[in-house]
C-alpha cells in the first residue's frame, strides 16, 4: 500500500523573455522526466494558447491559465484553484512547473506562490531562461531584466549553439554577476539535467537562495511597485509595452505571400509563433512557425487525423500596427479554386527556413 502523501509538491516557475526557449526546455523536461510526474501550468500571452498547444499531449495535467500575463489575468485565488487541482492526491504529481508568459514579471508569480495558502505546495524556485544570442539586445531594451536575474534561483543560458565559445564564456560571466549566487547553466535546446529543477537541494546554492527570497523580501523589493491588482505600477511591467495580435484562418495561406509578409515584417514585431496551413503546398503537414527577432524557422509537423486545418498565429511586438498586421495576414490567404499547378514550387521560400523537429538526443544543427 502506498503511504499517504504528506510531502509538499515543489512549484517551479519557468520564466524568460519572449522566445528564450521556455517551452523547449519544458518539453525537454517532459521527455526526460525519468518517472517523475510533472504537472504543467502554461501562462501564454495572446489569446490563442500556442504554448499550451505546443506542450499539449505530452502530459496529462496541463492547465492553461488563459489570456495574458498571469500577474494581471489571474488573481491569486485563480492560481490557487489550478494548484488545488494539480495537488489532489489522485494527480500523484511530484513537481509542478509554471511556464510564465515571456512578458510576465516573475516576481509577481513568485509572490503569488509564496502567498498561497495551499498546504500541499512549496515554492520550488525561479528558473530564468536566457537567449544567449539575443541577451545584450534584450537587456538594452529592457534593463528590468537585471532585476529578474537578481531573483532567479537557476539561470539557463540557452541557445549557446548560436554564439561562439568566447562569447558564451563572456555571457556566462556577465549573467553570473547579475544573478549571483544562482547557478548559470549553459544549454542548447534547454537540455539541462532535470534534477537541477526537481530537487532544489541538489543544485548549487539552491536552498540558500530560496531561503533568501521570502515574501517579505519581495514586498520590500517591490516597494512602490505594488503589482497588478489595479493599484500598482502596471506600466512598469514588460508586457505593458507590448501588444499581441492573434490571427486565425480556416483558409490556407499562400506560401509566397506569407513569406513576403514575413520578409517585410516591421522592426517592432519581436515574436511570431503558431501553426500555418499551406494547403496544397503540403497537404500532410502543418508548419510550426517560430520567429524571434530576425530569426525565423518552420518545423513541419504531420496533421493529426481529424484535426481541423487551421492557421493560428500570435504576433507580439511593441509599437506595432495591429490592424495593418491583421490585414497583411488576411491578404496572405490563398485564392479559392483549384490547386495551382506549381503549388509545391511555391513552398520553396518556406523550405529555406525549414528545420526538422530536433531529436532531443541529437546534437542540433547550426542555425
Ligand atoms: N538554435 C537554437 N534554437 C533554440 C534553442 N532553444 C530553443 N530554440 C528555438 O527558439 C524558438 C523559441 O523557443 P520557445 O521554446 O518557443 O521559446 P519560449 O521562451 O517558450 O517563447 P515565448 O512563448 O514566446 O515566450 C524555437 O524555434 C525553438 O526551437 C537553442 O538552444 N538553440
TrEMBL record:
Catalytic activity: GTP + H2O = GDP + phosphate + H(+)
One GO CC term, this protein: cytoplasm
GO MF term set: hydrolase activity; nucleotide binding
InterPro entries documented for this protein: CobW-likC_sf (IPR036627), CobW-like_C (IPR011629), CobW/HypB/UreG_nucleotide-bd (IPR003495), P-loop_NTPase (IPR027417), Zinc-reg_GTPase_activator (IPR051316)
UniProt-listed SUPFAM superfamilies: Hypothetical protein YjiA, C-terminal domain (SSF90002), P-loop containing nucleoside triphosphate hydrolases (SSF52540)
Domain of life of the organism encoding this protein: Bacteria
Domain CobW C-terminal: residue ranges: 242-333
A Pfam cross-reference name: cobW
Keywords: Chaperone, Hydrolase, Nucleotide-binding
Family: Belongs to the SIMIBI class G3E GTPase family. ZNG1 subfamily.
Protein name: Cobalamin biosynthesis protein CobW
Amino acid at each position: 500500500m502506498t503511504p499517504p502523501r504528506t510531502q509538499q509538491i515543489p512549484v517551479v516557475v519557468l520564466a524568460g523573455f519572449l522566445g528564450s526557449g521556455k517551452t523547449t526546455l519544458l518539453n525537454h523536461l517532459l521527455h526526460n522526466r525519468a518517472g517523475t510526474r510533472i504537472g504543467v501550468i502554461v501562462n501564454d500571452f495572446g489569446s490563442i494558447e500556442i504554448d499550451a498547444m505546443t506542450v499539449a499531449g505530452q502530459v496529462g495535467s496541463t492547465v492553461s491559465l488563459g489570456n495574458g500575463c498571469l500577474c494581471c489575468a489571474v488573481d491569486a485565488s485563480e492560481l490557487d484553484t489550478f494548484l488545488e487541482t494539480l495537488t489532489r492526491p489522485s494527480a500523484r504529481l511530484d513537481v509542478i512547473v509554471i511556464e510564465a508568459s515571456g512578458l510576465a514579471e516573475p516576481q509577481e508569480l513568485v509572490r503569488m506562490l509564496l502567498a498561497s495558502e495551499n498546504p500541499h505546495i512549496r515554492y520550488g524556485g525561479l528558473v530564468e531562461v536566457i537567449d544567449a544570442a539575443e541577451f545584450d539586445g534584450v537587456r538594452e531594451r529592457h534593463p528590468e531584466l537585471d532585476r529578474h536575474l537578481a531573483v532567479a534561483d537557476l539561470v539557463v543560458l540557452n541557445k549557446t549553439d548560436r554564439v561562439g565559445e568566447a562569447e558564451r564564456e563572456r555571457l556566462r560571466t556577465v549573467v553570473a554577476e547579475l544573478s549571483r549566487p544562482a547557478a548559470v547553466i549553459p544549454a542548447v535546446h534547454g537540455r539541462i539535467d532535470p534534477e537541477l529543477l526537481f530537487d532544489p537541494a541538489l543544485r548549487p546554492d539552491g536552498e540558500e537562495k530560496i531561503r533568501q527570497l521570502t515574501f517579505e523580501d519581495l514586498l520590500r523589493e517591490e516597494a512602490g511597485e505594488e503589482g497588478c491588482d489595479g493599484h500598482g505600477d502596471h506600466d512598469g511591467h514588460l508586457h505593458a509595452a507590448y501588444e499581441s495580435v492573434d490571427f486565425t484562418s480556416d483558409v490556407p495561406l499562400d506560401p509566397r505571400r506569407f513569406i513576403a509578409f514575413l520578409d517585410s515584417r516591421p522592426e517592432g514585431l519581436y515574436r511570431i509563433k503558431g501553426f500555418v496551413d499551406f494547403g496544397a503546398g503540403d497537404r500532410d503537414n502543418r508548419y510550426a512557425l517560430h520567429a524571434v527577432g530576425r530569426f525565423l524557422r518552420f518545423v513541419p509537423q504531420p496533421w493529426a487525423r481529424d484535426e481541423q486545418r487551421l492557421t493560428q498565429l500570435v504576433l507580439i511586438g511593441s509599437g506595432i500596427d495591429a490592424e495593418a498586421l491583421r490585414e497583411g495576414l488576411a491578404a496572405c490567404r490563398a485564392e479559392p479554386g483549384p490547386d495551382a499547378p506549381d503549388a509545391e514550387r511555391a513552398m520553396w521560400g518556406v523550405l529555406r527556413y525549414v528545420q526538422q523537429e530536433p531529436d532531443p538526443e541529437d546534437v542540433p544543427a547550426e542555425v
